[in-house]
Automatic annotation (TrEMBL):
This is Uncharacterized protein. Pfam families: adh_short. The lineage of its organism: Bacteria, Pseudomonadati, Myxococcota, Myxococcia, Myxococcales. It comes from the Bacteria. Coiled coil: none annotated. Signal peptide: none annotated. The keyword Ubl conjugation does not apply.
Length: 276
C-alpha cells in the first residue's frame, strides 16, 4: 500500500537528493514542499518518469501565516498514516526579522515547522516524523527571551541554537503524541549550499566542503532509515547520528534549556492557532 511522505525543503540539497532516491519507490507518494514551484514541478516530473508518484505543494516556512496555511493544505492532501520529513532549514549570516518579529533562522528552523506540523497532528494524519537536525546542536544555547527574536544572534551559533530548540520541542511532541514515531537525526556532514558565505571565508568554506559527503550518499542513508519499521519507543524521540542511535547530547539534557524551549513552544502554539 502506498503511503504519503511529506518532504520539506525538497527543491535542493538533501531534500532534493532524497526525493530523487525515492523516485522509483512504490511505497510512497511523495508530497514535495518548498518555495520554488518551478524546481518542485521539474522534480515531480522526474519522479513520475521513474514510475513514482509525486505531488507539488509550494509552501512558505518563513512566516507563521504561511506555516498555518501550508499545514491546512497538507491536512487536505494527505491520508492518515503519513510520514513527515522535516528537512527545510537555513543558516543565516545576519540578523533579519520576519513579519512576525521572529529572527529568520528561528522562524524557518524551529517556529514555522512546529506550527505547520500542529495541524497534521491535530488531524491525526501522521504516523512518523523524521527531523533532519544537525550535530552542531551540541554547541547550541537557547534563551526563551532572546533567541526567538535574535537578540543573541550570531552568524555562527544561531544555527546551532535553533537546531537545539527544535530538537527539544520534538522530544516533547513525541511525549504528547505516543502514537507518532519520532526520530531526531544528525544526517552526516553533507556538502550542500547551507551556510554559504561570500569573500575569503566563503572561499575557504568551499574548499573544506570538497571533502564532505555528497547529498546523494546522505539520501541513500535516509532511504535506509525510512525503510526501518520503528525508530523510537512510544512516547519518546531518539537521537541518531547517521544510522546509529546515540545518547542525547548534554546540551539537550540541561533542565533550564528544556524549560526555555517549552515556554517558547507554548507561545508558538498560541500563535499558530490564530487566523491566517
Amino acid at each position: 500500500m502506498t503511503t504519503d511522505l511529506i518532504l520539506t525543503g525538497a527543491s535542493r540539497g538533501i531534500g532534493f537528493a532524497l526525493a530523487r532516491a525515492l523516485a522509483k519507490s512504490r511505497e510512497y507518494r511523495l508530497i514535495l514542499v518548498a518555495r520554488d514551484r518551478a524546481r518542485l514541478e521539474s522534480l515531480a516530473a522526474f519522479i513520475q518518469e521513474e514510475g513514482g508518484q509525486a505531488v507539488v505543494i509550494p509552501g512558505d516556512l518563513s512566516t507563521l501565516a504561511g506555516a498555518r496555511a501550508l499545514g491546512q493544505q497538507l491536512v487536505e492532501q494527505v491520508s492518515p498514516g503519513a510520514t513527515l520529513v522535516h528537512n527545510a532549514g537555513i543558516w543565516p549570516t545576519h540578523r533579519e526579522l520576519t513579519v512576525d518579529g521572529l529572527e529568520s533562522g528561528f522562524a524557518v528552523n524551529h517556529a514555522a515547522p512546529l506550527v505547520m506540523q500542529q495541524a497534521l497532528l491535530e488531524a491525526k494524519r501522521l504516523r512518523r516524523v523524521l527531523l533532519v537536525s544537525a550535530g552542531l546542536l551540541v554547541k547550541g544555547r537557547f534563551d526563551a527571551a532572546r533567541t526567538p527574536t535574535g537578540e543573541d544572534f550570531s552568524s555562527l551559533r544561531t544555527y546551532c541554537d535553533t537546531k537545539l530548540g527544535f530538537a527539544l520541542a520534538m522530544r516533547d511532541v513525541a511525549t504528547e503524541h505516543p502514537a507518532v514515531d519520532v526520530l531526531v537525526l544528525h544526517p552526516g556532514v553533507v556538502r550542500t549550499d547551507l551556510g554559504a558565505r561570500t569573500g575569503p571565508i566563503g572561499w575557504l568554506l568551499s574548499l573544506v566542503k570538497r571533502g564532505w559527503e555528497a547529498p546523494e550518499v546522505c539520501a541513500q542513508r535516509l532511504s535506509r532509515i525510512l525503510a526501518q519499521e520503528r525508530w523510537s519507543p512510544p512516547g519518546q524521540a531518539r537521537w541518531w547520528v547517521e544510522e546509529t542511535e546515540q545518547p542525547w547530547p548534554p546540551a539537550t539534557e540541561d533542565a533550564a534549556t528544556q524549560r526555555a524551549v517549552r515556554e517558547v513552544h507554548a507561545r508558538l502554539r498560541a500563535m499558530g492557532s490564530g487566523p491566517s
